[in-house]
Amino acid sequence: MMLHIKNISLTLGKMPILKDISFAASAGELCVIMGANGAGKSSLLNVIAGEYPAYKGDVRIAGEELRKIPIAQQATTRAVLSQHVVLNQPFSVQDVAAMGRFVYSRHLDALDKEIVMCALKTMQVYDLRNRPYPTLSGGQKQRVQMARVLAQLLEAPGLQELDYTGKKMLLLDEPVTGMDILHEQLSLQLATTLASAGVLVVAVLHDFQLAAAFAHRILLLKAGALYTGGTVDEVLTAAHIKNSFGVDVTVLSHPQCNYPLVVTAATAGLFQSPAGKALNVF
Ligand SMILES: Nc1ncnc2c1ncn2[C@@H]1O[C@H](COP(=O)(O)OP(=O)(O)OP(=O)(O)O)[C@@H](O)[C@H]1O
């Protein structure tokens, strides 16, 4: 599945939110969108997810213009993890994960149920499956949401020997928010495993280390426009980070893996408070 975005602009109310963004991503890639708060990352993901059909420009998924793809077809070919999922009804954890299958049928058959259990095990929330979802911690809820989108994507209860090339797209908006380091790694490994199986994965991330370790390509947005895009090494430079986030960083090289390690520059003096004194922000 190829995603082609050409000259996308989006206005919400009277505010220009996205400005003339173009890029392409392929099946098998983990494409990461980064940028400062308000840069337009969620808006761009929502355009690709079909949430904002009033965009200007061209979004093509596997060659078809997004607005012409029937809603039912969109729902069965892509799964979306949104930034803020609010769910207060006392559904059990396994009910929430099972919602991923509802795009195919409201009545889950044996295969659907196996897929849901597989998704719960993969995200290590199987033991919580009978708990009411609202009673979970923030990170646990996020893992259940990952299980839900995984259940939506999978065609078999396993991650081995998958071939989803040209069939599926996964859109993740800050998927690891609230997760501990183990489950951050697990989630991004899952995203790359799915990408290797042919799923086109687009993820919004704030964490440079996760992006550096897992992304095949990074798009860096600034004020609604594409500031730069390319490989991890091309995008995660001190100059690009300074220009898009306003923070001085030093970019080191990971001693084992060779990918960039972004650390805030010790010389920047940002956010330092005199030792022992409360930080006075006003
Ligand atoms: N429905 C809306 N109506 C008007 N403006 C909006 C709407 N949704 C988002 N915006 C504005 O669009 C801009 C981009 O928002 P968006 O949520 O895409 O940013 P983001 O890069 O995902 O930020 P964050 O890192 O904080 O999640 C922001 O200035 C936001 O206030």
TrEMBL record:
- CDD domains, sorted: ABC_Iron-Siderophores_B12_Hemin
User: Does the record's keyword annotation contain tRNA processing?
Assistant: no
- Is Hydrolase among the key words of this record? no
Tell me where in this chain the ABC transporter domain is found: 3-248
InterPro entries (UniProt xref): AAA+_ATPase, ABC_transporter-like_ATP-bd, ABC_transporter-like_CS, P-loop_NTPase
Stored SMART domains: AAA
Molecular function per GO:
ATP binding; ATP hydrolysis activity
Q: Which UniProt keywords apply?
A: ATP-binding, Nucleotide-binding, Translocase, Transport
Q: What does this protein do?
A: Part of the ABC transporter complex HmuTUV involved in hemin import. Responsible for energy coupling to the transport system.
Its recorded name reads ATP-binding cassette domain-containing protein
